[in-house]
């Protein structure tokens, strides 16, 4: 009896268990992919996954440990090894403060499957591969996942990120670790001077790019097609997808991209508070070292002599939390230009792109309560000279109407910011952009409280529901099957559509006025009314551009 089957027995109803078993019916035969694979650094052995049609290889080094003289340096390829590396378990997570996720019931939607567990270490630059291929010659599409966590937390070992289920959709799936926080994004004039490119920071992003180089060199040995690599990620991972997509260092390493809960119009002020926020190099250096000086660190030499545990024990960075103190920086090298400049000059990578959001990503909640006076003041503060126009589009005369109007406006902004981003990004070819809106709450006693919260779509995309603690039903497994198939189709062809799935119109055919609702009642829906789309388009254009 497999681990996933046992998990289902512990956590699922009988009806759900039947559906779960049915979903594995295609995988009852033993995996026959070679258990030993040769990469450019050496041979490794994998093991059959808990889903027997998938072979897993975990803890594969894609870069040398970033320790000693390699701390705060771009990644370099790993040393070659002799013999056969046993790739049968996740590596340690990159250094971060670890919470095991055991919170009071109902205090947070983030149950244990969304948290990092286990050990952390600077020796963390490893990736994992799940392959459903029968032999290396199959050349299946490849999905490479970047995790979220505000660039301060995250790991491939997070249970919700287990990509074995997604691999059953006939795609090779890869998840990667990358450096975080101060160890992943520190900047300083001293580090600038050491660099041949005269810049510092962005080490975590360069880890992501180094992992893609490893994929380009080695994924064919696992039955993957290096010409059909799709990068995807959620939250800071979705932001990473965009940072990598505009970096000249990553050109030619991937063919398509999917960004979950990160993409926004360059003029949307919420972008500064989200996963695509960044700092200019000079600003990052000043803010980071002001913080470090207050923490008693006055030189790089002192930092270099500290252990990772001592660095993690430094005081928390002060607010504002966004942009994070330690996050990607606009350095002229890894990231040469702002998003707005890149789009205006059409320097973005012209590839199929899928972007979307969860319903409760940007402030909207299942039930929002406010008063009429609070709503009016909020509109005036937020929209300034455009507030009167906004209040005509979202009118209210009572507290109840004000609550509904504000919540509608927040959800509209959440959808419209994707539409207006697509207008800017897709000037080269709008036929290959697909936009979605996820609306399905995770089942359980707090579904109405948290709704379709930030990250809630990830277990469905990964088909990792059996790693969670929610009372999933037959409907949840059907939704997961649909989501995984959309992502797999997109990886295969650049179009999520396929047999048996609700039709998902491309941005061009939707004429910028609709988005694909995914989850409950899946199908195209209006992003908002034409007047409201036009209002937010003009408001974004009036704002500073990121």
Can you describe what's shown?
The chain is an alpha/beta fold. It has one domain: 3-Layer(aba) Sandwich (Rossmann fold). The chain contains 19 helices and 16 strands. An 11-stranded mixed β-sheet has the order 3-4-6-8-7-9-10-13-14-15-16, with helices on both faces. Strand 7 (140-146), helix 3 and strand 8 form a beta-alpha-beta unit. Helix 12 runs parallel beside helix 14. The longest helix has 27 residues, at 399-425. It is globular.
Distance N to C terminus:
52 Å
Question: What is the SS-derived class?
Answer: alpha/beta
- The CATH class: Alpha Beta
Supply the number of helical segments.
19
Amount of helix: 25-40%
Indicate the low-confidence ranges by residue numbers. Answer: 1-30
What is the arithmetic mean of pLDDT? 91
Second rung of CATH, namely the architecture: 3-Layer(aba) Sandwich
In CATH, the homologous superfamily goes by the name Alpha/Beta hydrolase fold, catalytic domain
CATH topology: Rossmann fold
Radius of gyration, rounded? 23 Å
Strand segment tally: 16
The description of the largest β-sheet is: 11 strands, mixed
- The tally of domains stands at 1
Q: What spatial order of strands do you see in the largest sheet?
A: 3-4-6-8-7-9-10-13-14-15-16
Which band does the percent of strand residues land in?
Answer: 5-15%
Based on Cα principal axes, name the global outline: globular
């Amino acid at each position: 009896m497999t681990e996933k089957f046992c998990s289902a027995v512990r956590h699922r109803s009988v009806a759900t268990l039947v559906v779960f078993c049915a979903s594995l019916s295609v995988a009852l035969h033993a995996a026959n992919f070679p258990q030993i694979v040769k990469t450019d650094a050496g041979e490794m052995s994998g093991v059959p996954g808990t889903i027997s049609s998938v072979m897993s290889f975990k803890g594969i080094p894609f870069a040398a440990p970033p320790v000693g003289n390699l701390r705060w340096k771009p990644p370099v390829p790993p040393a070659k090894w002799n013999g056969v590396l046993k790739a049968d378990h996740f590596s340690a997570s990159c250094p971060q403060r670890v919470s095991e996720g055991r919170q009071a019931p109902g205090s947070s939607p983030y149950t244990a499957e969304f948290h990092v567990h286990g050990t952390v270490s600077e020796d963390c630059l490893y990736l994992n591969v799940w392959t459903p291929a029968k032999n290396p010659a199959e050349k299946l599409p490849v999905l490479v996942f970047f995790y979220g966590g505000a660039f301060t937390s995250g790991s491939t070992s997070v249970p919700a990120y287990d990509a074995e289920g997604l691999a059953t959709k006939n795609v090779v799936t890869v998840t990667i670790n990358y450096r975080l926080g101060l160890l992943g994004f520190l900047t300083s004039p001293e580090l600038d001077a050491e660099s041949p490119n005269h810049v510092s920071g962005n080490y975590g992003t360069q880890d992501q790019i180094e992992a893609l180089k490893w994929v380009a060199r080695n994924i064919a040995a696992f039955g993957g097609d290096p010409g059909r690599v799709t990068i995807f990620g959620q939250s800071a991972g979705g932001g990473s997808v965009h940072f990598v997509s505009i970096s000249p260092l990553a050109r030619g390493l991937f063919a398509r991209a999917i960004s979950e809960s990160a993409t926004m119009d360059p003029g949307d002020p919420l972008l500064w508070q989200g996963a695509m926020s960044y700092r200019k190099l000079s600003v990052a250096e000043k803010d980071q070292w002001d913080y470090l000086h207050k923490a008693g660190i006055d030189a790089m030499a002192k930092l270099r002599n500290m252990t990772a545990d001592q660095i993690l024990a430094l005081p928390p960075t002060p607010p504002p939390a966004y942009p994070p103190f330690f996050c990607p920086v606009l350095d002229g090298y890894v990231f040469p230009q702002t998003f707005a400049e890149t789009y205006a000059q059409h320097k973005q990578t012209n590839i199929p792109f899928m972007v979307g959001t969860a319903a409760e990503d940007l402030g909207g909640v299942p039930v929002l309560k406010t008063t009429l006076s609070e709503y009016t003041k909020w509109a005036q503060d937020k929209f300034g000279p455009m507030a009167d126009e906004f209040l005509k589009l979202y009118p209210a005369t009572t507290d109840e109407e004000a609550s509904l109007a504000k919540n509608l406006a927040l959800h509209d902004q959440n959808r419209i910011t994707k539409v207006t981003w697509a207008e800017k990004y897709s000037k080269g070819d709008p036929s290959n952009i697909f936009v979605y809106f996820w609306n399905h709450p995770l089942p359980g006693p707090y579904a109405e409280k948290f709704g379709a919260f930030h990250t809630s779509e990830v277990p469905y995309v990964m088909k990792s529901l059996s790693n969670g603690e929610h009372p999933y039903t037959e409907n949840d497994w059907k939704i997961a099957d649909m989501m995984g198939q959309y992502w797999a189709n997109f990886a295969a062809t650049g179009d999520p559509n396929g047999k048996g799935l609700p039709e998902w119109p491309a941005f061009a055919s939707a004429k910028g006025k609709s988005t694909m609702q995914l989850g409950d009642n899946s199908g195209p829906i209006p992003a908002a009314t034409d007047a409201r789309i036009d209002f937010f388009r003009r408001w974004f254009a009036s704002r500073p551009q990121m």
